[in-house]
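Ticket #4471: complex job returned nothing on first submit. Input attached below:
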Amino acid sequence: MARVVVDVVLKPEILDPQGQAIVGALGRLGIHGVADVRQGKHFELDVDDSVDDQTVVKLADTLLANPVIENFTIRRD
Amino acid sequence: MTSGEFSVDTVEHAASTPEQPQPFAELGMSEDEYQRVRAILGRRPTSSELAIYSVMWSEHCSYKSSRVHLKQFAEKKPPEAPGEQILLVGMGENAGVVDVGDGWAVTFKIESHNHPSYVEPHQGAATGVGGIVRDILTMGARPIAVMDSLRFGRMEADDTARVLPGVVAGIGGYGNCLGLPNIGGEVYFDESYAGNPLVNALCVGVMRADGIKLAKADGPGNKVVLFGARTGGDGIGGASVLASATFEAAGKTKRPSVQVGDPFAEKVLIECCLEIFAADLVVGIQDLGAAGLSCATTELAAAGTGGMEIDLDLAPLRDPTLVPEEILMSESQERMMAVVTPEHLDAFMAVCAKWDVTATVIGTVTAVEPDQAERGGRLRMRWHGQTIVDLPPRTAANEGPVYNRAIERPADQDALVRSDGSSLPRPRTSDELRATLLRLVGSPNLADKSWITDQYDRFVMGNTVLAQPEDSGMVRLDDSTERGVALAVDGNGRYTALDPYVGAQLALAEAYRNVATTGARPLAVTNCLNFGSPEDPAVMWQFSEAVRGLADGCQALGVPVTGGNVSFYNQTGSKAILPTPVIGVLGVIDDVNRRTPQGFRTDGASIYLLGETRDEFGGSEWAHVVHDYLGGSPPAVDLGREKLLAGVLTQASREDLIDCAHDLAEAGLSQALVESCLRLGAGARIILPENVDPFVMLFAESTGRAIVSVPRATETRFTHLCDARGLPFTHIGVVDLLMSSIEFQRLFEVSLRELHDASTSTISQRFE
Amino acid sequence: MTFPGSLDDRDAARAIRIAGGEAVPLWHADPSLHDVDGVVLPGGFSYGDYLRCGAIARFAPVMQSVIAGARDGLPVLGICNGFQVLCESHLLPGALIRNDNRKFVCREQLLRIENNRTRWTSDYDEAQEVIIPIKNGEGGFVADDRTIDELEAEGRVVARYLEGNPNGSYRAIAGICNAEGNVVGLMPHPEHAVEQLTGPSVDGLPFFLSLIGVTA
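Support reply: We reran it on our side without changes. The output follows.
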């Protein structure tokens, strides 16, 4: 079994209210060098050999991410 | 506790190793209790049995410090006339059930989840909602509404900014996802709750009167099914540890783990159960709440006619490393246990499969030997083929320790009552009165709570007829009827601190009055009693007096207590919270279309003040807000007057004599008038009686009062009704829809805009 | 339509009945649409809003039939969670994200019905202002500028928030439709404004009358 990691983040032009809330909270913690935060999702898939890169792209594009508002990156460990 | 080279403690092993030391103290048991378990079993308990007894005999589950007092609710139950029986299920079951007419029955209850909400506000409050909803579901009802009573530290305190938004988001998040309208509640701030917020959640459900389900195991050979979420390590030790002790006492072995809830899992569980009920597929059913499997198995086995045998290995697990003791103590949410006949089992499992709900037969109901019958037979559990539990279930579920805690009226109580605040400077001039009114309107306890309540869905199910800020939450029972129920929850810690007996009755009176104000007939009571440590004789004095007051009050008003909850050990360090009994009253209305709303709406209608006003400011909002003062006696309670007032209000509603009503509570007449004007943006011209000090008239908190708006066409009939019943009334003004202010003639005028701004800015500015 | 976690399905059925129609319960696992004249995807938290709102419901067996039917002209109304399912299914453009104020908001909202030529809004007057409850935590409608400009230009904005944007939706868009006008997605809940007793108004009823009146 191999491990595939898919990370999904909102596209830069989409408002991320949760990310903004985090920036605010960091400020209240006294940490001030953080200009921006984008919150996303991290998926870890345990896959067998039948799941090739093309399949991973398809499942990321169709299910794990909403391509209208999200970008994703794929990494094989 | 990890597995690895784990070897389970079996009954056989326990019998042969009587001297083995056991960690009963770490599990919250006293030496006496431990010895009693040994006496019951005739040997030392296995570690699984010890886990079961430790949670079932904890304060939270066994009510050991409160039972001697709570039995007054049954002893003083108001008598029911034959043919007028409304109590279908009384105390002792998961929730009480009342007949509301026409073949409909309603079940309701309020419960606390205080300590978890301090530790993890969002999940603590969310799982509190989840728990009470399951209690209602397990009676065979469809849950139809929720309410909540919340208390936090001072609004300005830093920690309140941590706790309040989390609690509100948790309640909203869980309740909204379940699809239950939140129809009312209360929010109060007081420094006494700073280290210990109060989160009391209420749920009400409806069923046909012949559809009641009870938690009992009957019928040897019937199957015991565990269904819902898988069991994990949530809240292990939560029941016997968190709710029975303070936070600072937490030692290494006491993991303050808070349960994590999944409202989607509960939503499908609700739909699954309702289909199961409709097809009459269960003999008995119990939800898994505090003490999880320990509680469900012992209670099901203790009630009913059968014992029980469980194969604990069969319980579906989220975490395969859990050992039996942990499985038994787990408080994983969204789980139920049912007793199902073999003939119905396939159908039961099919419904679960339809809703994708995990369901597993984990045991069987067993026949009971005659000599074991008194104790409920035996509850036996096996793990990997070995018997690890073999105990008489009633000893765990019903025969827990009963304590007669020491009671001592606090030494400073008399001084507290004597310092009655009569020397506190009072506003006298018009300007001072006007400023006081605005200050109270904007004070945290009286301010508009929309910032909070707009996070709750009040529309879902499409049956909500009245919701916050109306005097009661009112829902139509079902599309097919005009019948509805109304609910109100009320409490006042400051009144109760001054006089616990009266304070409890005042809370009851207020909730009772709230229900009647909306046109519903009060029927039954639930209560959540939030107090400090039962090991403190002063707290026990408060508790015993409050329970006595509540029981006497319910008897006088003719509304029985159907069930409730006790929460002890609410304190920060060694300082107890204000004694805070929270009372919920349920009423019924034959036709929801006839309900009485709160906001002034008819131009030219006469405004009447019903009841009598006295110079009473002990425990008042004015004393608190303006002078930060607590002392004296709370307002006098007159339950006969409350009954009279309620009768007039419900009669007037039925006969369409009034178009709106609002009861008087904190900050008295001024607050009631402001709220009734702001509700729909109506102005009013008020003329206060000349012979009374305007300060008293405006701000005293005398009980047994309400304001009503009476259209000219029905005014004579209404005043005749009051006269005939002997209810004092005073004409105090007129509704004027063209005015954008409230004018207190010869005193001052204040614009609706100013009142609106003062009222709505407080909470939103603090927490946004 | 009922998915696991749907909440306002019963309310949608009630609204249909009050409008004089016959409410036919549809189940997510049953691919058949049972010859209905229109489909309502109701509000709620289908699949607990896991992954993304509507992301899992979109793949339910029944949705293949809904998507095929919609492309064939079947009237489909997606309310709140239903709107989210329609966007995830690509029957409508754009997406719904978390409210900008990060809180669930429940209130009686003033709206303007800007397109009364869809299958679901023909019973409204053009630019009619209505009060309909809104209750959502993930109601912010977003799309790229090109898509939004297209929607505006083609008159496919069905409803717009007035007097305050409750969730940060771009251009205060409360509802949109497809080019043919048979698929409408709407964040507010018309099914909660069909009875004077329980709603702020009966302004929601025309959504259902539009369809039922036509087919009656």
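The first helix of chain C runs from residue 9 to 18. Closing as resolved unless it happens again.
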